[in-house]
Specification:
Blueprint lengths: L3 E5 L4 H12 L3 E6 L2 H13 L4 E5 L5 H15 L4 E4 L14 H28 L3 E6 L12 H20 L5 E8 L12 H5 L9 H12 L10 E4 L12
Helix pairs in contact: 1-7, 3-4, 4-5
Length: 245
């Protein structure tokens, strides 16, 4: 029986690359997204390549939808081994104009959902003898541009949630880690300028596949000594000191 991975927000962008990578590595993949059209399209595309994937419509800001996602996954594949909490909003609003409703929507989508899905999935992982969770945060958890308060708070919360849950679920043999991507170009990569690439110590802007490979690495059973960590994948940008001359 294949291991099963749930990837939220996997109809597009980074999530899509993660779903593809796990399917190509012989996982049964659940593509969980609110985007029905693209979610079904990637599922069908993977199936056409003789890979195992099913789309489950899910609004991660809705606790009932999360419970349904876990229930559907068990009905489809009978087990859960990996959860990638990738779904998120990245809307920026000037602080004086940020409503409580918009704040809650970002926090509930980006942060609360990761707690709720991990908690639901952990019950099933425990029955399998353990599992692995990866939360997709952001380098914006540690550095900011203007008007990113809700987004930064949600991603900073993911870093803290990661190390807290890694301790809480240790007895169940469930590892919880985090990835903080930097600039990841999800489409039209060839439209980038030379200066976009050259400002990175690694001399290029990131691609969704860079994050997908890291997810595979962190969820590999042989790497179970990595636990409660945040892996920054940004081409070295957060290590680069910048001065004006």
């Amino acid at each position: 029986m294949n291991k099963t991975a749930i990837i939220t927000g996997s109809a597009n962008g980074i999530g899509r690359a993660i779903a593809t990578a796990f399917a190509e590595n012989e996982y049964s993949v659940v593509i969980a997204d609110i985007d029905v059209t693209h979610g079904r399209a990637i599922s069908e595309s993977l199936n056409n390549d003789n890979l195992i994937a099913e789309f489950v419509e899910c609004d991660v800001s809705d606790p009932a939808s999360i419970k349904n996602l876990v229930k559907k996954t068990i009905q489809l594949f009978g087990r859960i081994d990996v959860v990638i909490n990738n779904a998120g909003l990245s809307e920026f609003t000037q602080p004086n104009e940020l409503t409580v409703e918009d704040w809650d929507r970002v926090i509930n989508t980006n942060l609360r959902s990761s707690f709720l899905l991990t908690r639901e999935a952990a019950k099933e992982m425990k029955s399998n003898g353990g599992g692995s969770v990866v939360n997709i945060a952001s380098t914006r958890a540690m550095m900011s541009e203007p008007n990113s308060e809700a987004y930064a708070a949600s991603k900073g919360g993911l870093l803290a949630l990661t190390h807290a849950m890694s301790i809480s679920y240790a007895e169940d043999n469930i590892n919880v880690n985090c990835i903080s991507p930097g600039w990841i170009k999800t489409e039209n990569y060839d439209d980038l300028r030379d200066i976009d690439h050259e400002q990175h110590p690694s001399k290029r802007v990131g691609k969704p596949e860079d994050i997908a490979r890291a997810c595979l690495f962190l969820t590999k059973p042989d790497n179970d000594f990595i636990n409660g960590e945040n892996l920054v994948i940004d081409g070295g940008m957060t290590r680069k000191m910048i001065y004006e001359h």
